[in-house]
Amino acid sequence: MSLRIHPARNYVRNVVARVLPAAGKPASDDPFSDTTQFDAISDEYFASLEDILDPSRFYGGDVSQTTWQQNATTIGDDVRLFLDGTRMAAAIMDEYLLRDFRAPRAPGVS
């Protein structure tokens, strides 16, 4: 449902196998303190920041039969079935490819 509605380019879910101890004592308001147990870390990739910040774009993927407001309600109702919002942290980040380690392609190969 999320991939149908949200304009995500990619989605990766990483299950947390074990928690490594923190090097120092985190601040009490740190959402990533060692008292917080995460089950997974999910990466969602979008083409632009506007795809995330503009609700009509974020929830507007399947607007042929619904409105983006209906999509937002559907996603919100579904998320509550499997996510504990009190144990969730979100961060918007950029990714920069510093070096491409893939093998170069032969000439004429696409």
Summarize the structure.
The protein has 110 residues and is α+β, with helices and mostly antiparallel strands.
Proportion of residues in helical segments: 10-25%
Beta content: 5-15%
Mean pLDDT: 82
List segments where confidence is low: pLDDT < 50 over at least 5 consecutive residues: none
- Tally the helices: what do you get? 4
- Label the structural class: alpha+beta
Describe the biggest sheet?
2 strands, antiparallel
The coarse overall form would be flat
The Rg value, from CA coordinates, equals: 18 Å
Give a description of the structure:
It is a single chain. This protein is of the alpha+beta class and 110 residues long. 25% of the residues lie in helices and 14% in strands. The protein has 4 helices and 2 strands, in the order αββααα.
Q: Helices, strands, pairings?
A:
Layout: H1 2-5, E1 8-15, E2 40-46, H2 50-53, H3 55-58, H4 68-82
Antiparallel strand pairs: 1-2
Record keyword descriptors for this entry:
single chain; 2 strands; 4 helices; two-stranded antiparallel sheet; alpha+beta; 110 residues
